[in-house]
Amino acid sequence: MTNGFALKLGIAVVLLSGLSACGNIEPWVKPYERQALADPIMSANPNPISGSYMDHVFEAREGARGALGGGGGGCGCN
Amino acid sequence: MSLLPNKVPNKRRSIFRIAALAALATPLLASAGVLPDDRADALYHRYEGGGVTIQGPSVLVRKKMAEKYAISANYYQDMITSASIDVEVSGASEYKEERDQYSLGLEYLRGKTTYNLNYTNSEENDYEAKTTSFGISQDLFGDLTTITMGFSRGEDVVGNSTDPTFEQDIDRWSYRVGVAQILTKSIITSLNLEVITDEGFLNNPYRSYRYFSPTDDRLFVLAQEIYPRTRTSNAVALNGRYFLPYRAAVYGGYRFFTDTWGIRADTFEVGYVQPIKQQWTLEARVRYYKQDHADFYSDIFDRVNQQNFLARDKELSTFNSVAFRIGASYEFAQSGWRFVKKGSLNLFYDRIEFSYDDFRDARFSLLPSDNANFRPAGSEPFYEFGANVVQAFVSIWF
Known about the structure:
Chain A is mainly α. Chain A contains two helices and no strands.
């Protein structure tokens, strides 16, 4: 069941990646309109050394784990 | 019956490596087309609660080269002093131990794709863990969307400080995907999914479950826990962040979790970030967590070996926690000083309240039966405790 779940996730991402080849989707937020999004206060993880420490504080005391997103693909969440 | 200190269960050690790898990796909502800035952080952390004190330093350095490559390194240390309720109930005395962890990360940017590779090694006197992680991040749709994928492989060796012949392995696999999406000029969201599988010796050689004493059911007897040898978990998280017109940010998130041990958990959080003048940034956050217990968990069993798997880790019980945070950051050298582009001083304080629904404070039934506070086994009050978490760190960008 787990492998099936992982496979579906993989397929979904591959399909999504394939869409990029179309290249015709017009960005509805232009690059020059992203000033607010680029503000440091909009960063999901402005201080990685601190964010990962707090993730550890919680996960060490809870049953749940994973999907923290801090890794952006590099998180060794196991 | 174990009289040994109850140490951190294996599944909880793995997060230390997660912490390191997450620290090395690019923040999810950052554009995959740009490598993070050169930066160095030095942090002191201290956790105190439930009879446990854990403190130590963490140092993280990231440096990019030719705007295409980046290298990062992290050293993290825990110095632990523990006289937790588990230690007390087992009859052991306070213990101290230390854990050292080293991590190294590499990133490579090619067009709108970032590849990253991380390795972490963690060592204690009775536990060693190695984790290798690979990830890809890709910008799409005019950089409105960033997708991520990752895979990790972990190999642990579990020892026992009182038995040199004891040595058991754990294999771990993690698969994850994520999407970060810019919705409007002021809203960004992300969705992350992760599947994790563990196989091997997943319980802790020092921990015990308890059952009613066959000779006096007001008392209990301890026996070593038995966990399943496999565990698979699924987690999905949705997060969002909104930029308020007067330059502040509000954020929120929800995570749903299930696993093959029967644990189901929900995590909610909401926070607010407020810059003040040019140099200060204040933050406040509330986080709520709740979970249902594992299928093989019980606060007290009727008899020894009542079932195939038996556990009494409070981390596997039904409980909830509420965490409140306040934090402040002060930026200095904003216009640069020598090789430093800017720097910041940061102080964060979190207060966490844990409240257990089926984990009882067994110390009450260890009291002499003529003590006014004595309670029979299985009738003790439910356990609860609060913890204070402090982080102080300095960051410089160069």
